[in-house]
Every structure is written in structure tokens, then in C-alpha cells.
Amino acid sequence: MLKRDFYLRDAITVSKDLLGKLLVHEIGSSRVSGKIVEVEAYMGPDDAAAHSYKKRNSKRTNIQYGEGGFAYIYMIYGLHFCFNVVTNIPQVPQAVLIRALEPVEGTSVMLENRGVKNSNQLTNGPGKLCKALGIDNSHYGLDLCGSSLYIEEYEKPLQKDIIPAKRVNVDYAGEAKDYLWRFYISGNKHVSVV
User: Fold this and answer.
1) Positive or negative torsion for Cα 69, 95, 74, 127
2) 8 A C-beta contact, residue 131 and residue 56
3) CA R_g for the chain
4) Among candidates 3, 93, 2, which has minimal Cα distance to 50?
5) In the 8-state DSSP scheme, what is residue 137?
């Protein structure tokens, strides 16, 4: 699994380096995993799209004020969980949203978790991947350097295959809505539909 130092960097750097890594969740005797193919960086107090914009510190965002390498999980639309990786050093609240995965291990478990029969579009969105991997609010604050939910080395995409783009659903964020802080692996069919 990745060591703490990997996470103690800014969210943009970490987000690009997460592409091609394997997100693993060990559930009882099952291991489910997916290759990270799409991410979004949120750069903290100066980023109007970030939950920690203007140094907001609430019960929900508090985990971001610690050191990197912990899970930041929240719910959107009252329905879907989103899994984020806290980055940087304490008091620099930044995070990377994992937007899409390419299923690698435990596809049958993922299908059952999602309640679907077809693996097409199984993990091509933040809510879908959380449901498929069994990630929910009970994993908030979990140490990603631990033994149940973690990220490990897998594949390294070529630099030319890492595509920058605008982040999704941040139209409220003024000029920050146009920042090219979403990154995905070119040509991967598991990237979310936006």
C-alpha cells in the first residue's frame, strides 16, 4: 500500500499520481478493487469549489485539517457517497475526489453491491464506485495506510495519456469552475459520463 509520504503533497500532484493506482477494499474475506482512472483535485481555502473554501471547518470537513492519507467521505443529493483522499500536511485542507475506477478484482461482489447484472458502467462515477466497493459514511476518517481500505501501486499511465479537464458540478464556484483540476486516463471506457 502507499506510504504516508505519498499523501503529504498538494492535491493536484497527488491526483495525477493516483491515476493507475489500485483502490482496494477488503470486506470480510472478499477483496474488491479498481484501477483509478479519473480524479478531481480540491485545493482548500482558496478554491471556491472546495468544501474547505475560506477555511470552513465543520464536523464534515474536519478530517481535511489533519495530515494526508485519510478518507473523506460525504453524501450528495441525499443518496450517493463520494470517496475522497485527504492530502497535504495538517492545517492545509485539500482532498482528491475519486471519480471513476476500472474494476479489477471482485466484480461479482461489486455487481451484487450495486444490484445490477451487467458490469458496463459499474464504477464510472463517484456514487457508483462507492456503492460497488461498499464504501459509505462508516469509512469516514479511515486511515488509508491501514489494512481494510487502501491504495496500492498498480499501473502508471504515460504522461501524454493524463488529460486535464474542468471539474464536474461546480458551476457555483465562480472562476474556480473553469480550473482544469479534473484528470483522467485518455481512452479509458470507465471514465465517468459528463
Assistant:
1) negative
2) no
3) 15
4) 93
5) G
CATH of 4-185, one of 3.40.50.1220, 3.40.980.10, 3.40.50.2300, 3.10.300.10: 3.10.300.10
Q: Which three cell numbers stand for residue 129?
A: 464506485
| Ranges of residues in the chain whose predicted pLDDT is under 50 | none
Q: Are 40 and 96 in contact, with CB atoms under 8 Å apart?
A: yes
- Per-residue confidence (pLDDT) for residue 76, from 0 to 100: 87
Q: Are 11 and 87 in contact (CB under 8 A)?
A: yes
Task: Identify each DSSP E strand in 77-179 by its residue range.
Answer: 80-87, 94-105, 149-152, 162-165
CA distance 8 to 112: 35
Helices then strands, counting H and E runs in the chain, come out as: 4, 8
pLDDT, tens digit, 9 for 90 and up, residues 118-149: 888 999 999 999 999 999 999 999 999 998 99
For residue 163, the model assigns a pLDDT of: 98
Axis-axis angle for helices 126-133, 107-114 (nearest 10): 110
Any idea what DSSP says for residue 122? S
